[in-house]
Amino acid sequence: MNSAFLIFLSAFLVNNIVLIRFLGLCPWLGVSKRLDSAAGMSMAVLFVMLLASWVTWTVYKFILVPFDIVYLRTAVFILVIASLVQFVEMFMRKQAPALYSTLGIYLPLITTNCAILGTTFLVIDNKYTFLSTTVFAVGTALGFALALILISSIRERLDLADIPDALKGAPIAFITASLMSLAFLGFVGLLGLSI
Amino acid sequence: MFKHFTEGIIKNNPVLVLMLGLCPTLAVSTTALDALGMGVAVIFVLVLSNITISALRKVIPEPIRIPVFIIIISTFVTIMDFTLHALSSELYGALGIFVPLVVVNCIILGRAEAFASKHGIFTSFLDGLGMGIGFTIIIFLMGAIREILGSGKIFGNIILGTTFAESPVIYMILPPGGFLVIAFLMGGLNWFQQRSK
């Protein structure tokens, strides 16, 4: 139980997926202009990341390893994630239209989100069990949500600030990200966790 | 013809202008050598996938083109993965998870969809090469700036004096430094373009 908590904390704060590991920067910059779209994206990422980690973990453990075709990992994982997202989108549109109208537009974007694929690779590289995988995926997705919601709140205020013309838009967002990343480095050493 | 080649290097630079492929640019630019390795890996995959997709563009059915592109790209990524592992396990270790993640690098799928699936083989080759070189220049620049300021070295050789190398700006090789350098590279390009108008 103790180690599960450490995995969660490590994924959530110390090795924050966006600010420390640099994964998922495209959606992080793309949908962080408004707070409500950031919240929608965060929910979609949490949902897909958990499903994708479960499915790829199972595929790796029960198909790729027994048949000795681990070298196909990259191709298999990306196809599994792409079809999973497509399937979830179709299922959601039929069965849960209300949920679909909030998360639907973010789902196709997630297929090429390197945060999802990166998390599934990290799960395999760290040789996690099924329970650790779940905890790791939830921690990573919540870390993404935290970083996304923080930056979108800051960017809503940045709109009103007086910024040099050349730094408007993406550059000032990156400078903000740099300061946030520095703040997150303060979590290194928390309960003995390292980057 | 050569317009396609030069366009990717400056005017439509994939990283600074199109804002594609940001993740590897920030993550593996802590030293100039790692950055160069990543750049070459991306050029390899981008050129070969552009050529293949362009050659097959009349055969690939329109509705399933994206999955087909992804399979072609992931094939070349797997080849690159093993080649890199065999040639230099040190570089392979430094690039880590970002080697297989080249498959979701938006530059590659973006060029496949926007260019290679509509143009001939040779122009697609030039486009891939130009875009790849544009990416490599930026990631190498980032790596060089961060290595010089962050450890006082370039390619492992001390250049700013031993005093600086003993207590460099460690901030630069930590994750926040990556965000800061890309912010000022983008800002610098904006400033230059606004001034030359």
Description:
- The complex is a heterodimer of chains A (195) and B (197).
- By secondary structure, chain A is mainly alpha-helical.
- Chain A has one domain.
- Helices cover 72% and strands 0% of the residues of chain A.
- In chain A, helix 3 (35-64) packs parallel to helix 7 and helix 8 (130-158) packs across helix 9.
- The longest helix of chain A is centred in the first third of the chain and has 30 residues, at 35-64.
- Chain A starts with a helix and ends in a 10-residue tail after the last helix.
- Chain B has 197 residues and is mostly helical.
- Chain B has helices at 3-7, 22-27, 32-55, 65-87, 89-95, 106-116, 121-151, 162-166, 175-196; strands spanning 153-154, 157-158.
- In chain B, helix 3 packs across helix 4.
- The model of chain B has no long low-confidence stretch (mean pLDDT 87).
- At the A-B interface, helix 2, helix 4, helix 7 and helix 9 of A face helix 2, helix 4 and helix 9 of B.
**How far is it from the N-terminal to the C-terminal residue of chain A, by CA?**
21 Å
Whole-number average pLDDT of chain A?
85
Structural class of chain B: mainly alpha
Which whole number gives the mean pLDDT of chain B? 87
